[in-house]
Each structure stands twice: as C-alpha cells, then as structure tokens.
Amino acid sequence: MDGRVLAKLEFPAVIAMLRDSAATVTGKERAEELTPMKAVYEIEQALDETSQAKDLQRLYPSFTLGGVHDLRALEKKALMDGIIDSQDFLLILDTLRAADRIREFLKTPDLPFPAIKGMAYGLHPLAPLASEIARKITNEGEVADKATPELARLRAKLRSLQGKAREKLESMIRNPDIAKYLQDPIVSIRGDRYVLPVRLECRQYVPGIVHDQSGSGATVFVEPMQVVEVNNETHQCEIEERAEVMRILRLLTEQVKGNAAELADIRESLTQIDFALAKGKLSAGRDWGAPLMNGEGRIRLISARHPLIPGKVVPVTVGLGEDFDAIIVTGPNTGGKTVLLKTIGLLTLMAQSGLHVPAEEGTEMAVFQQVFADIGDEQSIEQSLSTFSSHMTNIIAITRSARRGSLVLLDELGAGTDPAEGAALAMAIVEDLLRKEAKLVATTHYSELKSFASGHERVENASVEFDIETLRPTYRLMMGIPGRSNAFEISQRLGLSHGIVEGAKSYQSKEEARTANLIRDLETNQILSEKERREAVSLREEAAEMLAWIQKKESDTRDRAEKALEKAREEALEIVTQARKDSEGLLKQIRDMQKAGYKELDEQAARKIREELRGREDQLYDKLESGSVTSRRGAAGAGPGDLVYLPKLKQKGQVLTPANSQGEVQVQAGIMKLTVKLSDLEKLAEEAPGGGEAQKTGAGAIGADKAKSIGTELDLRGMLVDEAILEAEKYLDDAYLAGLPQAYIIHGKGTGALRKAIRDMASKHPFISGARQGGYNEGGDGVTVISLKQ
C-alpha cells in the first residue's frame, strides 16, 4: 500500500509501539518491516499467532527471551575467516543456552499454543559447540587455562618466570645499598617488562636498561641487568601463550563457521517468536482483541477506539458494506469526523497486519486490496497548489485506481471552492466510487450531500453529536441522522442578538428551514432512543445481577440446609450409640444386683431404671425431630405384629407389645426397640406411604447402611499395635450397629503382641459378650472370634 496513505493514517506510530515491545534487535527489525497483508488466510494465521502469544504470556509470565543476542556480525566474521574475540564467544554461548531453554519449554506436551510451538522448528541443539565454548572460555570472557594442555603448560611457566623476576626485584628493593636510589620501593611494569623506579640523578648507580621516564622527568624506569634474562624468557613465553590463545580462538571460530546454517535457523526462529510475543504484549498491555476477518468488504466496528489517543476515548460503533457501501458524515468542526476516518482506516491496516485492534468482541474487519485516504490540507506554495487543488489532485488519483476491494476515506469532500460546484463535484465523485464498487467513508459540511445520501439506496447519513447547552461536541456517532451546522443556535448562545438570528433565518428558503427542522427532530428522536436503549441495557444488567444474587442465596441456603441435616444425622447416631451404651450399663447393673443375691428387684428401683430408659428414648426422639410439625394420622388400635410408620425417623417398624395405660407401645425399628406413643405412629397395610420400601434416614438408615457394607472379618496383619487397636474398635462399633452376631479378627501369630492386645481389648469392650481363639478351620491362634451383644 502507498506509504503516504500509511503515514496519513498514522500506521508508523503503531509500528513504533510494536518495535518497543520486542525484546531482540532482530525482533525490532521484523516489527519495522511489518506491512498490511492482502490474503485472508495469512491475516487470520497472523492474528491467531498474536492471540496465542498473548495467552502464553498471560499464563506463563516468566517465559522470556532473556540471553538472546544478535550474532549476525560474529557469524559474518566467521564466514570471512576472521577470528572471533573471546568475549564475543560468551554472547554465542548465552544465545545457544537461551535457545535450548526456549526449545525445551515449547516442547512441553500439554502446552496449548501450536502456532508458537511451530516456530521452534529452527532451534537446533548445538550441544557440542556450546560445551566447547563453556570449556574453553571462562565466565569473564578469557580463554581458560584448561583449554589445551599446551596453554596450561605455557601459563604455568609464565607465572613461574614472572614470580622469579619479581622475587629478584623485591630482593633488590630490600637491599639498603640499592633502595636509597629508588624513587619508590615498588616493582613496576613497562612494556611487559619488570622495572624499578629510579631517581634520575641516581641512574648510574643502578645498571640496567631504561624503558620509560615519568612525566616530571624525575624518575626513570630501569630494568636491572639481574632480571634482563628472566624478562627475556618471560617475553618469549608470553608470545607463545598468545599464539596458543589465537590458535584456540581460531578453532572455536571454525566450529562457529561450520554451524553457520544452524545458527541462522536459530536466529530466524528466535526472531519469529520474539515478533509474535511483541504483538501479544502490545495487545495485552492495551486490552486489544482479535477481530473477525472477511473478504466481502464488510466492516463492523463495536466500541472501537483510536489506538493513539491517550486517556478516556469515546468509542464509536459503525458498520459498512452490508446495508450500504458509503457513509456521509456531517457535523460541526472538532466534533470527531476526521478521527472517525482515521480510526476506520488505521484499524483496517492493523488487522490486515495481524495486530489486534482496540474494539470489543464481535468486531469484524474486511480485507481490502487497497486503502486510499485524502485527509488533511496538503496545499503547496512551491507547486502553486491551493487547498482545493491539493485535495482534487489526490482524489483524481484515487478515482483512477479505486475498484472493488478498495476502501476510500475522504475528508471534507468538495471543500475549498464554490459551495454549489463543490457539492456537485462531491456527489459525482461518490457516484463514481459506488459504480466501481469501492467502500467509501466521507466527511462534508454540504447539505446537498445530506439530501443525496437520504435519497440513495447504498449511501447512509451519519453525524457527530453536538451539545447545544455546553457548546461542546460529545464525539458520539449517530448513524442514520445527518448533522446540523447549529450555526444559529451557537451564535445566539454566544451573544448574537435575537433579531439578527431571526433575520438570518428569514433568508433561509422554506425548503432549507423544513430540512433543518426535520434533521433536528430526527436528532432529538435518535438521542431519546439511544437514551432509552442505554436505560434498557442498564435495567437488563441490573436484573441479571439480581437473578444471580438470588440464585446464589438459594444455593447458599440449600448448602446450609444440607449441612444442618448432616449434622443432625451425626447427632442422631451419637444419641443412638450413647443410648445403647447407657442401656447396656443399666442392664449390667441389674445383672450385678441379681448375682449379688437379689433374686427379685425392689419395685421402686426397677421403676427408676425403666424411667431412665424411657427418658433416653424420649431424648432420642427430641434430637431426631426435624423441627417442622407433621400432620399425623395416628395408629389407634395397632397391636403386636402390625406394621407402622414412624414419621420422626422416616422408617417403618413392627409393634411388639400391646398399648399400656399411657397409650404407648414397643416398636422394633431396624436394630432399635423403641417405646412410642400410638399418636406418633401411622398404621400401615403392607407398604410405607408412596409405595415400595419406606425411605430410610437418620439412625435407621445408618444402621441399614452398616449392615450392607460391613464384613464379618477384619485383617490387622502388618499393622502396629496402636494402629490395629483403633481400627478394631471402629470395626466393632460398626459391626455392633449392623447387628452382626459374630466377627473374626485376623491378627496372625507372629510374636503374639498383637493377639494379646486384641484379646485384652475384647475383654473390656462394652459391645462384646465373649472372645475365643479360632478353631482349626477358622485360623487357629492367628484369629480371635468375637461374639457381639444383641
């Protein structure tokens, strides 16, 4: 597309934002090269890459391209048989390690970003090159001593020679006969040779070679004759050491040259990944989204915003290419007409470049082969072009090139000349572009174009709203309503006399006045309709929030009720267990009294025991009471053997005894025997209400569930004693509630500690009536047979 059009629509500013989002030099260069594409499938693929990169950085914020460097200059040096510096090899090593890290991350099997994962195709693992660099180059960028045995030998010799030279010089410094001639008692280096700083006037007293002189001339740096030979050896060793270093660097450079193709692939893959991540980062940082794309010339912007305008922006919603092919936008100056043109044009260029756009979900963009724009004043004194001439020059070029698949954006169409002629030219230009099937958005102040749009099937009027009260534009776009100049109203509010304003109105033709009034009425109706629409949307949102709140409250209430019911069931089980224990205790008391010689119990004591049992049963009923009053039919006349229904327990049972004087009967309900008033029962024929077996809940359901799930054996082999005792006690409680007569505890023979602990526990357990060793066919001494109380 024409670079001037891209500049007018401010596309380079978006590219600059994208470039700043890239992390690598090559990624920034790729961003600067980005231009709009023209194939729908390519654009959709690029948009998908942007979306995946955006999601990847949101889900994995620690994923970066840290450590990646631009290696092109080093690769070029290697290919030209140069030698890469030791410091630069660290850049290569960092890049190879970063490529390995990125490749391993993108190889994660469940990583849901196929487009980004596919970019890792060129991240070749160059482990041999990386390991060689790491072995031969230190973290400080120097060639390591261990790079080769020869280098290690030379550096060891060099250190020895240097130490020898320094030792001789230091001994001279310590010698009083020589120290008095020195400027400072230190060993210095000049030209890779060890020297002493000697006072100029004492030069003849220190035989040797002068290598340098101080700036003041007061000191000369002398290499004493005693160290000349050692320094010569040191210098020769340094030459050999540098030659070995260069040989090592040359060999490493050859390895880089041999992997030049792989390094180029790595660079390209890293560039692609960085470019995709930059697009995703740009979108995420500004809350942009992916538009839908089509090749039918259909645009549908939803709450779109210009991406370069800072702060709060009034969004625009506009459509083109479905019910109409051209939009004529009118309204006051500074009302946002030009911004609308630039927003449509710039978002089109961004979408066709694979970038997300600042618009809401559901936004749809068309793929145009060409985008033309005539925006702004391009008058030129040098070319003798007026405002009209500059606009017309652009429009002539546009009309010659525009065709189907073109988007044309014209600002102030027909302006800069006689209004009547300008309006006529504008209408003819619109007709020509429509005939060529181009899509058009144009702004104007001419009322003739408003009438033209109203009478043309494929042209739609639109206007930018202006607030007469504040004399400020609202920047809201109103589709289907032509704009007014508002000249009379603005002038009067600014202070122009009423008489002048009325005089001006009298010069208007009746047709113009009628048109102006019609536009005003349409604008008022549009504003009212939009206000009502916004109120309806607000009410719908409030209703949805209220419904969600009610549903949440209902869910919370249901959860609390279920928790309360569960708690009640747990309490019921606890009461049943306690009642059974208390009953056993009372019965044991009776047996103990009988064993003590009381063959017949005192009537008063027996009555007291019965009352305590009845009290426990009443407590059980109170705890199981659901809290609501249930209508009961009663069970008058029920006798032994009759089936009855207990509403409090929601369980059926069988009457065991006739009613006593208080109207109470004894009922067998599951494993429980209860004393219940006839008024609290419902007499049954064959089945519980509702047909089929009565629903069991509460204690009855617990006992029934235990009976279904509990087994007759418990295997404790392999457990510690404490662990086994806890497990056995829990099992025996469940077996007792389930009504099992007998249970087998398998503890094995072993040392006998577990067997002894189990039998000690059985002798004291309140639910156990007896325990014995297993028989020959029951496991012998490795099993204890438990008899449970019924």
Account of the 3D structure:
This protein is of the alpha/beta class and 790 residues long. It contains 23 helices and 23 strands. A 6-stranded mixed beta sheet has the order 10-11-12-8-13-14, with helices on both faces. The protein has a 5-stranded antiparallel beta sheet with strand order 18-17-16-15-19, with no helix packed on it. The longest helix is centred in the last third of the chain and has 86 residues, at 510-595. The protein is flat, with a radius of gyration of 49 Å. The two termini are 96 Å apart.
Question: Based on DSSP secondary structure assignment, what is the total number of beta strands?
Answer: 23
Helix content: 40-55%
| Rounded mean pLDDT score | 83
Query: Which consecutive residue ranges, at least 5 long each, have pLDDT under 50?
Result: 379-384, 626-632, 687-704
Strand order of the largest sheet: 10-11-12-8-13-14
Radius of gyration: 49 Å
User: Whole-Å distance between the termini?
Assistant: 96 Å
Largest sheet: 6 strands, mixed
Instruction: Describe the global form.
Output: flat
Short description:
This protein has 790 residues and is α/β, with parallel strands linked by helices.
Secondary-structure blueprint:
Elements (H helix, E strand, L loop, with lengths): L2 H6 L2 H11 L3 H8 L7 H20 L12 H8 L6 H21 L7 H5 L8 H10 L12 H26 L1 H4 L8 E3 L2 E7 L8 E6 L5 E6 H34 L1 H27 L5 E3 L4 E6 L11 E5 L5 E5 L6 H16 L11 E3 L3 E5 L12 H15 L4 E5 L8 H17 L3 E5 L3 H9 L3 E9 L4 E8 L7 H8 L3 H9 L3 H86 L7 H22 L18 E4 L4 E5 L8 E6 L2 E6 L4 E2 L14 H12 L3 E3 L5 H18 L3 E5 L6 H12 L3 E6 L9 E6 L2
Helix pairs in contact: 2-3, 2-12, 3-12, 4-12, 6-8, 8-11, 9-11, 15-16, 19-20, 21-22, 22-23
